[in-house]
Amino acid sequence: MNKFIFVSGGVCSSLGKGVAASSLGALLEGRGLNVRMVKCDPYINVDAGTMSPYQHGEVYVTDDGAETDLDLGNYARFTSGSLSRSNSITTGQVYDSVIRKEREGRYLGRCVQVIPHITDEIKSRIQAVFREDADTDVVIVEIGGTVGDIESIPFLEAARQLIHESGKANAISVHLTLIPEVAGGELKTKPTQHSVKAMQEQGIQPDILICRAPVMLDEPTRRKIALFTNMDPDAVFTSYDVDTTIYEIPLIFFEQKLDQVVLKKLGVESRHANLSPWYSMMERFKSRNGKVRIGIVGKYMDLHDSYKSVYEALFHAGLAGGVEVELVKIDSSRLEGSDPPENILGTTGEDAEIDGILVPGGFGQRGINGMVKAAAWARENKIPYFGICLGMQIMVIDWGRNVLGWEDADSTEFNQDTKHPVISLLEEQVDVKNYGGTMRLGKSESVVQGGSRILTAYGEKNIFERHRHRYEFSNKYRKEMTESGLLLTAFTPDGSLVECTEWPEHPWGVGVQFHPEFKSKPTAASPLFRDFVAAARDRKQSLR
Q1: pTM of this structure
Q2: Cβ atoms of residues 252 and 240 within 8 Å
Q3: What is the DSSP-derived secondary structure letter of residue 182?
Q4: 240, 264, 281 - which closes a domain
Q5: Which domain range does residue 20 map to?
Q6: Final residue of a structural domain among 265, 281, 297
Q7: One domain for residues 241 and 366
Q8: How is the beta sheet containing 385-388 ordered, strand by strand?
Q9: What is the pLDDT of residues 310-368, one digit of tens each?
């Protein structure tokens, strides 16, 4: 079918462009189309791998090991199309490729320019998604940034060219803008008018307008916007603030017939819509009963997006377990003072108590000892604990220090001189100097041992999850760790690397070296997150 939908944003950032694009993808999949999502990021970084979580949020990892923008996580949670490094395009990748081609003489001595060479490279990468998967019907391309930003201009120009070359029946523009509310509750349309004008100056007349607003726009407001932006009135939609969950947005768009208008503009015969998984998910959301409080003990607590996939996976697990999950964000550095852990983690009163502890991934030494304290507290007090990547390594360090009595047990990432390096650098990482894209990345197989919590969760012995790390459980301590009681319950197929640790005689203490949050969906929660939240729920109920 080879149809393109370009999604852009105006007025300001953080309007929910990624959620809008993902919701549209979910609707088209509900209509039986094969959809692939692409994110164009205007930054000059080659990928998101070396960016600070405080600046850019989490790094989302694909099966093939690409370190990408967190919007690809939205795509994965809303749609079922495969995601790989070809689904993430950055200015850095584009210029790197063009410059290498120029150095190799592939432009035959011509002057290399933004137009056509940079825009041709962008178009080629977008079109490559069709070449990669011949069954793809529609590619939805989200252009990062805000119209008017100098960084986004090459991507918008590439979109303009593809719309012109493909024809209006095969490529359309969807533009997301802001309708602010001023004093007195009046909605102002002028920013949207200016935003569409900025798109027109780039040579693109939006075909569909999605207006982010505090409330549903009434018919007169929609007609006014259409009149001043050269749009059809039935092509103006509202993405209004919801008090439920972002996963209701596909249904909100469906009620406004966004997918019908898109299909009509793309010349696709309308077909039956099957959104039953989304309606079922919303039924589970509305029928939740009770609440569990999960303490996330991490390093990057000031920005919600730093652990975006973890938070979303906990929400999905709550849907599966029929409970609301309250996130209690705890900076691990707070646990490094003289206060006992229970004063910070909370153990008094039903409403104050933490029902489960999760330690997510991270890098660097800051706050590590606080995480170790949190793990020890969860182990000793029989609090359900889930360690992800660094969180599993923290379990091992705690076991070495507080069970085996090795006070200096540590990771060589944090202490190169420790006498007990229970976590150490992968052998192939020893001489690595470049940090971007050089870790153990992407999908990898793990073989699960019988009688384990992880086997109960997955129900099968061979599982595939994604990794992003450099350090591993040190094999020289396997014997002492297992003889003292620590359970090693998953390994790589050749048995060379430990993939999962569990606490014995504990209601639920599991650490995994991989990142199961990346594959969790609102319609299908990650098995480990599901069982972790269920364990926290069961513990809370048993204490009543």
Answers
A1: 0.92
A2: yes
A3: E
A4: 281
A5: 3-281
A6: 281
A7: no
A8: 324-331, 291-298, 356-359, 385-388, 509-512, 498-502, 487-491, 440-448, 462-469
A9: 999 999 999 999 999 999 999 998 888 777 888 888 754 444 589 999 999 887 778 89
